[in-house]
Amino acid sequence: MKLRFSAIALPLLLFTSAQGAKPLEHTTIKLSDTESMKLVKVPAGKFVMGSPTTERHRTRDSRESPQREVTISRDFHMGIFEVTRGQFAAFVKDAKYVTQAEREGWAYAWNGRVWDKVAGASWRKVGFEQTDAHPVICISFDDAVAFCRWLSRKTSRAVRLPTEAQWEYACRAGTQTAFAWGDKWDDGKGWANAADATAKKRFKGWRTFSWEDGYVFTSPVGTYKANAFGLHDMHGNAWEWCSDWYAKDYYKNGPKVDPTGPESGSARVLRGGGWLSSPPRCRSAGRTGCELRGSYCDLIPSFRIVVEADDTRKLPAPSLPNRSGWCDWRGPGRDAISPHVPDKLDKKPRFAWTQKTTGPGLSGLAVADGRVIVADKSADKKNDIWRCLDAKTGKELWQLKYTAQGDMPYTNSPRATPAIYDGRVYLLSAFGDLHCVAFDTGRVIWKKHLIKDFGAKLPEWGMTATPLLVDDKLIVNPGAEKASVVALDRVSGKVIWKTPGQGAAYAPFIYANFGGRRQAVGYDATSLGGWDISTGKRIWTITPPKKGDYNVPTPIAIMDRLLVATENNSMRLYEFANKGKAGRTKPKHQFADLAPDMVSPVVYNQMIFGCHDSYLYCLDTNSLKLLWKARDEAYFGFVTLIAGNGRVMIMTIDGELLLVRADRNKYELISRLKVLTGEGTEIWSHPALTAGRLYLRNKAAVTCLLLK
Ligand SMILES: [Ca+2]
Fold first, then answer.
1. Is there a single domain that holds both residue 346 and residue 284?
2. CA 123 to centroid of ligand 1, rounded, Å
3. How remote is the CA of residue 217 from the centroid of ligand 1, in Å?
4. How many domains does the chain have?
5. 20 to 30 Å CA-CA from 536: which of 74, 425, 470, 692?
């Protein structure tokens, strides 16, 4: 459904002093049948960004200095309010979006006593009461960007987070004082919801404004006065994301016309203060940098949008790929979690289509925007063929074919799952050929060879780890002495950093934020480690006591803990200390019986599900205690697990699908369905699940199974 962007639908004639007699131009965007969003045109202009050294209680360091004249060269439209819970819910419903906190199962929230990490907290459940008219909070930067991308697509407009300069310009609305209401803190009554006398009754230690705004926590948007540009709640209510990376020294070095922030960083800018913020935090020039996950900042951010006249500004890259579809190894979060797991299975399989292949397939399937990418091999085993199929019909849209020959156990077909992101797809062969191709045409944008280019040795079972997309980087593990782990620029393919180390293992890396340190976590040939996303520096190393693990199952981040499942060293849970270093190299908990050689477990609702021998195990996430195990011959050998919707879905190597309730207390098989039978059924390839369809790949074909 295309949503209407009614340009200047309601030109309300509001006259303000700062604007002289200029009317405010409003625009409304319809988000759903019940939700719309009102924007106001902010005129281009110049202003002095930052605060003077004389400003009361400005932060002592120089982060708001030097003050400088900044030009905003083009008009833009800005949401007059922070995005509300109701508006965000409309997005979630339409895009079937799952926020980062929901995916990861926790966020910072109010636990009734203190602000802390709370399992199950998210924008839906922040620990205090909110209505649909309150600003949505507990929104990660990636969530905010996903909302903008969704609205951009729906409206065919350039919907963005404001740049930090746009934000401050809009907040000041022609003023140069500490607040839009002036320099005096106590003149702000009726302008904002911040830490105030109301909040002080509850939180005695808070530093507050002297007035009462009537709210301890968030308030409905627009409860307080608008500034001269017609914008409400720029001071207080909820912190707002800006699109810029945060740097303390940016004002010294940044451009003065339409600045968009530093090229890279580890934190994004938050502005405006919130319901819990002291007066200095709420100032027009006040700024803070928020690490993207795993900190207090998980709780507080909301955002507002801008719509720009032309699409000249690049959207910031989210930390992880767009969460729609099944665009990566184990899905968008690399965690095999999907809201699309069905309630139950049909009695007989229903297929949308089946497409024969010329060779066997090991690579997982990736699906996004109506296209499926599948790995294939020419019948003579000499060429890799990546096929892009129409997800609805199975019809081939394009293919990429190149020579990739040699003998290898388990066939010489590609192993890594295609990673789709931002109009590109990244394809890695078993021999190290890495292609970045245009998602719509298959045109090669750049290519590299992980073995030849970095001087690496091909592991026994080939290159298997799906490259990891984080920010603008594509992180790969050639396993060369001088380039064990490498970050490539995802757009150009150029090397950003390379870190010496050991040979490659098999499991794909994951992105994690341990102790505020953003890192790629994965294995080399003998150890487990974390590599800093920005610099590539290896942060920590854990070498397990028993040698010989091949490290095929994917590691899993659970809050500040790391779960690994290995064949010789069992299942282990590690804790991380400050700065993201492994707290101790001994695991906090271990569970010996679940020691899969290839099957990656799935973590869902504080339970771990994993298969080993003929058992499905259910363990407690915090203690690794066994909750139950169930035997079924179908679980023998190899399976893939996907959890969500209160269920775990298990695809067996023999083509049977089992649906089990995700219940701590007991094993309950809801349904089972023999999907594929006959010759060539062997399913090694990880299926892709999205929007009522399960895409499967066996030795001879790709199939699209319709689910309830
Ligand atoms: Ca308040």
1. no
2. 19
3. 6
4. 3
5. 425
Distance 167 CA to ligand 1 centre (A): 22
Mean pLDDT value across residues 1-13: 39
Residues 271 and 188 in one domain: yes
380 and 354: one domain? no
* Per-residue confidence band for 61, with pLDDT thresholds at 50, 70 and 90: low
Q: 648 - beta bridge partners?
A: 643, 660
Judgement on whether residues 354 and 441 belong to the same structural domain of the protein: no
Range 454-479 average pLDDT: 95
Q: What is the DSSP letter of 455?
A: T
Final residue belonging to a domain, choices 308, 340, 371 = 308
User: Which region among 92-101, 167-176, 496-505 has the lowest average model confidence (pLDDT)?
Assistant: 92-101
**Residues β-bridged to residue 428:** 434
Specify if 50 maps to a domain: yes
| CATH code of the domain in which 469 resides | 2.40.128.630
- The token pair at 542 is 């854990």
CA 97 from chain centre, in angstroms, equals 11
Residue 629's domain spans which residues?
328-358+600-708
- Tell whether 279 and 145 lie within a shared domain: yes
Other beta carbons within 10 Å of 265: 18
| pLDDT over 70, % of the chain | 93
DSSP structural state of residue 185:
G
Rounded distance from Cα 69 to ligand 1 centre (Å):
33
Q: How far is the CA of 24 from the centre of ligand 1 (A)?
A: 28
CA of residue 540 to ligand 1 center, whole Å: 42
Task: Indicate if the pLDDT at residue 323 is higher than 80.
Answer: no
Residue 317 has pLDDT above 60, yes or no: no
- Whichever domain contains 131, its CATH number is 3.90.1580.10
pLDDT tens digits for 254-270?
899 999 998 777 788 99
Asked if residue 693 is part of any domain, the answer here is yes
